[in-house]
Design brief:
The complex is a heterodimer of chains A (267) and B (75).
Chain A (H helix, E strand, L loop, with lengths): L4 H9 L7 E5 L8 H11 L5 E5 L8 H9 L7 E3 L12 H4 L8 E3 L9 H8 L7 E3 L12 H6 L6 E3 L7 H11 L7 E3 L10 H10 L5 E3 L7 H5 L4 H6 E2 L3 H21 L1
Parallel strand pairs in A: 1-2, 2-3, 3-4, 4-5, 5-6, 6-7, 7-8, 8-9
Chain B lengths: L22 H8 L5 E9 L1 H13 L5 E9 L3
Parallel strand pairs in B: 1-2
Classes of the chains: A alpha/beta (267), B alpha+beta (75).
């Protein structure tokens, strides 16, 4: 039994006034009651600037403490990562608590089943005037992509946006690029592992004809390949794109096909 | 750096090393009062976990605490 083990550890850490970075990742089966002591750390350790709570099994009972951490609005705490936890987000608690924080520069909320709460979250973030890096990968952003319109319209200075594995199909990706077309702040957009195909090639060309600020567009693990863009984009813009090579894709499919044939033979 | 079991990549799929780390020896072989404590991709016995708790109490200048992908053995 690992009864409240992480809670005990966090209680000890909460007495360290000098703490600047607390990073806890992939700690499974460490017991309950963690939220209480994480909130205590954030309240006690005034120098804390970065807190990573990624995959540590925070649950619904920890929700109020997570809200407390966010709404504390500490000017020093500028980095928060709550990815891959078990608590359910509702528009009344964590998601909307971001509206009370104006100091976060980095917000990472990967794999939290945000789904229909995406619009509420994005609206809340309009108040985060210092936000530079937002990553909500592994959430079903797709059909809610329109909600990003206001976020970028209201002059938020986001420089890096991560939307990997977000169920982005061509039509949603087109909406995103239209929203970002005239944005002068975003320098890196990552949309790996989505459903973007060569149907988006022309959309990307049109985007780069307007947007000169974006320096990196990562499109790995989609269904659009280097060959789909090389003849359409000039060298400068092509260099900004990170794409899978079609040959690698074909080789990978061939390997998988061979493996399937072998499995069939064995049967 | 006070104590680091691994500086390897932090991919989510990475499995922790089953080999247990002897926290007491690790810490006293490095520094008694580190400002940075990093432990990644390994296993801890119950005894080692309690050593870790005791050690943290002694750290008076802890600025960075990183704990990643650690299995806590129940025995």
């Amino acid at each position: 039994m690992n009864l409240n083990k992480l809670a005990k550890l966090l209680e000890k850490i909460s007495k360290k006034d000098s703490l600047q970075v607390l990073s806890l990742t992939k700690l499974v089966d460490y017991g309950e009651n963690k939220g209480k002591y994480i909130a205590l750390i954030v309240n006690n350790c005034k120098e804390l600037s970065k807190i990573v709570l990624d995959g540590i099994e925070l649950e619904d009972v920890d929700t109020n403490y997570i809200v407390e951490i966010i709404t504390l609005n500490s000017p020093n705490l500028t980095y928060i990562d709550l990815s891959f936890n078990k608590f359910k987000l509702t528009n009344e608690n964590i998601v909307t608590s971001f509206i009370k924080n104006t100091w976060f520069k980095t917000i990472i909320l990967k794999g939290l089943e945000l789904d229909e709460y995406i619009p509420f979250l994005v609206t809340s973030l309009e108040n985060c005037k210092h936000l530079e890096h937002l990553d909500i990968s592994n959430n079903k952003v797709g059909s809610f992509i329109n909600s990003f319109n206001n976020l970028f319209y209201f002059g938020i200075n986001i420089k890096v946006l991560g939307l990997n594995s977000c169920d982005l199909f061509d039509e949603y990706f087109a909406v995103l690029l239209e929203i970002l077309a005239e944005n002068q702040n975003l320098i890196e957009l990552s949309v790996n592992s989505n459903e973007i195909t060569n149907m988006s090639a022309q959309t990307i060309v049109v985007f780069f004809s307007t947007n000169k600020a974006l320096k990196k567009l990562s499109l790995l693990k989609n269904k659009i390949y280097e060959k789909d863009l090389t003849s359409l984009l000039d060298e400068e813009n092509m260099n900004k794109c990170l794409l899978d090579n079609d040959d690698e894709h074909l080789e990978s499919e061939l390997r998988e096909s061979n493996r399937s044939k072998k499995r069939e033979l064995i049967k | 750096m006070g104590c680091s079991s691994s500086t390897q990549s932090n991919e989510r799929s990475k499995k922790p090393n089953n080999k247990e780390v002897d926290i007491k020896n690790k810490i006293f072989n490095t520094s008694n009062n580190p400002s940075e404590f990093v432990i990644k991709n390994c296993s801890l016995s119950q005894d080692s976990f309690f050593d870790l708790l005791e050690s943290i109490e002694q750290f008076t200048n802890l600025e960075i605490f990183i704990m990643e992908n650690i299995i806590l053995n129940s025995k």
